[in-house]
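User: SLC13 family permease, Actinomycetospora lemnae:
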Amino acid sequence: MTPVIVSIVVLVAMFVIATVLPVNLGALGFVAAALVGVLAAGMSLDDVLAEFPGDLFLILVGLTYLFAVAHHNGTVDLLVRWSMRLVRGHLVAAPWIFFTLSAVFSAIGALFAVAIVAPLAMPFARRYGVSLLLMGMMVIHGSLAGAFSPISVYGTFVAGVVGPTGIPFSSTTLFLAPLVINLVIAAVIFVVLGGRSLAGTRVQHAAPTVAGRPSAGGDGAPVATEGAGSPDRTDDDEADDEDDDEDDDEPVRVGRPQVLTLIGILALAVGTVGFNLDVGVLSLTIAVTLGILCPAGHREAAQGIAWSTVLLVCGVITYVGVLQEAGTVDVVGQGIVALGVPLLAALLLCYLGGVLSAFASSAGILGVAIPLALPFLQQGSVSAIGMVAALAVASTVVDVSPFSTNGALVLASTPADVDRDAFYRRMLIYSGVVVVLGPLLAWGLLVAPGWL
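Assistant: Predicted structure for SLC13 family permease:
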């Protein structure tokens, strides 16, 4: 068998084994990358190890470490309550608040907007009984809604690849198409995943205090006065809520650790958005600095790093890198273009970008999918403007997968008292639906009608 066929067969086998047996898919990915890379693709072991996503490793470790610190010192609890005050206790507005926040961060250039918003949104959802799947997907789709603004990383990258070729291109279409499609998807999942059941639910919230003195305007502990349950809630959750209510009778204290942590989170947002600093290194730096300045509880916080998620994501992405080195991606892409049926080729290119992106970084896949499509676009058989926008949507909308960067960040941000395996399976089901329907939706709206 050729290296291409071997790599595809091994990929399928990995998923079968991880589904049937309690073996981490990431661990399988590392083993498969070594075996396929060295034995079938002619790579050296050093070449295989070079595919390890060191930047993503640092991001996952750094962020889960930083927000574990924030959780243990009470800062996450403080931010959750402030978020509830922002929506005046109307729980139904909360998912849209986090959607908008994520979209704004993404649109102004934060490549990892999810990394900033998810660690706040997921504990919020856990505390107030909002579906964790709903909240996590709202954060991701919000980030994708703003991902292709003219000043965003994705937007400038696509413009830089397509612009010099002379192929027709519209930065406005590139921005608005993902915005509208992700907004529509968010509205659908809000309804399907129980968002409507939050209507009429109001949450009372305690006011923060400084140096032990309540500030003016406090109105009690966070208690849902009306509302329905959530798919993620169990009888144990209800018991936990009763305990939380007892703890929440006291106003939230804002002390030195919380102030310093808030400054650190602000520095993370400003550093990544305004100065393009590395998210992983910056978050680790902030976490270590907080440990030096406020060491209480820091040892326990270090145990909050989501190592199983880190192993899962890094292993799969390493194997995808071997797939690319083995030529699997190029062979599939060239075969699609050679079909000779423009609309079918366009659809298959959208699926190629979508399926690959579900297991890797969207930025990296865009760097593969769009150059692969350029010869096809130069033929003029389909609208270049619509096809570029469709590829952008198809290659990013699948970021809800727990194997992609954004999906992994949401999974890693899931509170420790939640069954992450169960939540991971729910994410897999949802991402499977998106992988099947997302590229088709992008093609059906932006390419097939020919109106762009």
